[in-house]
Amino acid sequence: MLRDLLENASVIEIVATFVALGLIAATILCLIYIIFGGISFILSAGNEEKIKRAVHTIRFAVIGLFVSFIAFFLVRFITNLLDIPFELSFSNIVDLMTEIFASLS
C-alpha cells in the first residue's frame, strides 16, 4: 500500500497518509508513556516527587493524545470546509496500521 501510494498517488493522498501515520505514532507514544508513568508510579515507594513526576507523565501523555485527535478532526473539518478531497477515515488508519505491523513481522 505504501509503495503504491508513493508511486501512483496524488499529493493530497500522500498528505492524508502522513497525517494517519502521525496519528498512529501519537497513539503508540501515548501508550508507551502511560505504561512508563504507571510503572514509575508503582515504583515510587511513597516518594512524593516521584509520584508527581509519574502523574505528570501520564497526564501529559493523555493531553498529547487528545491534542493529536483534535488536530486530526480539525484537518478533516478544514478540508471539508474548503472542498479538498481529503479521504481519510479511521478504517484507512486501521488498515495502514495493520499493514505496518504485518511488514514488521
Report mean pLDDT, rounded to a whole number: 86
- How is the main sheet built? none
- Radius of gyration, taken over Cα atoms and rounded to an integer in Å: 18 Å
**Helix/sheet category:** mainly alpha
Q: How many strand units? A: 0
Strand content: under 5%
Q: How many H/I helical runs?
A: 4
Q: How many distinct folded domains?
A: 1
Summarize the structure.
The chain has four helices and no strands.
How would you characterize this protein structure?
The structure is a single chain. This protein is mainly alpha-helical. Helices cover 84% and strands 0% of the residues. α2 (11-42) packs antiparallel against α3 and α2 packs across α4 (90-104). The chain is elongated, with a radius of gyration of 18 Å. The protein starts with a helix and ends with a helix. The model has no long low-confidence stretch (mean pLDDT 86).
